[in-house]
Amino acid sequence: MQPVAVIGLSTLFPGASDPNTFWENLVAGKDSRVEAGPQQMDADPNRFYDPKKGTLDRYYCMRGGYIKDFELDPDGFAFDSQIIKNLDVVHQWTLYVAREALRDGGHLQKKELLQKCGLILGNLSFPTRSSNHYLLPLYQKAYEKQLSRLLNDPNFKLEPFAPERDLVFENLGISGLPAHLTSRALKLQGPTLALDAACASSLYSVGLACHYLHSRKA
After folding, report:
1. 89, 114, 105: which is closest to 174 by C-alpha?
2. Which residues pair with 59 in a beta bridge?
3. Distance between CA atoms of 3 and 210, rounded to whole angstroms?
4. Is the whole model's pTM more than 0.85, yes or no?
5. 86-132: per-residue pLDDT in tens?
C-alpha cells in the first residue's frame, strides 16, 4: 500500500466547527449532546414526545448530537449566495467541510489543482429535512383519500406535520447530490461520487479516495 499524505483537514461536529475545537472537546471529555429544539424537529419538540418508551407514534428521547447555530458563509463558491442560503443543511454542511479542507491545504484558490481534484463523499441515503417537507404532503394526500373512503367521510383531513415550503429543486436530491453540488460549487473537475455503505461509509470513502490518488485519476 502506497502512503497517502493528508494535507488539508476540516470538521463539523456538534459543538465543534473546526478540528482544534473538536480535539479540545475530546480531551476535556465534553458531552456535546443537547436537547432538540424546533429547528431540529421542524415542529414543537414536545408535540410528539413521550418519556415512556414504546408509546405509539411518539419518541422518548430528545437529547442528541445536533449541529446548532451553523451559518454558512457563501464566500468562495461558484453559486449565488441566495441559492446557497436555500439549500438543505446537508448540502451546506458538505459545502462548508469541503471548502475548509481545501483552504486548510492551501488549494482553495488554485484553479489548476482544483481541475484535477475529486470528491468522494460518504453519505447515507436518508431523506433530508427539506426532502421530507416535499414528500410528506404527498403521502398525506394519498392516505387522506383512502381513509376518507374507509370512514365514509368526504371531509376527513389529517393534521399536517409542518407547513409546506416553496420548492427548491436541489433539495429534492439526496444521496449523491450533495457531492455533485459541492464539486460544482468549488469547480472541482476530478472524480465525484457518493458512497453509501451504512456505518462503513466513511471508511470505504477514504479507501476509494486513496485508490483514485494511487491510480493518478485525481
Report:
1. 89
2. 49
3. 9
4. yes
5. 999 999 999 999 999 999 999 998 989 999 999 999 999 888 888 88
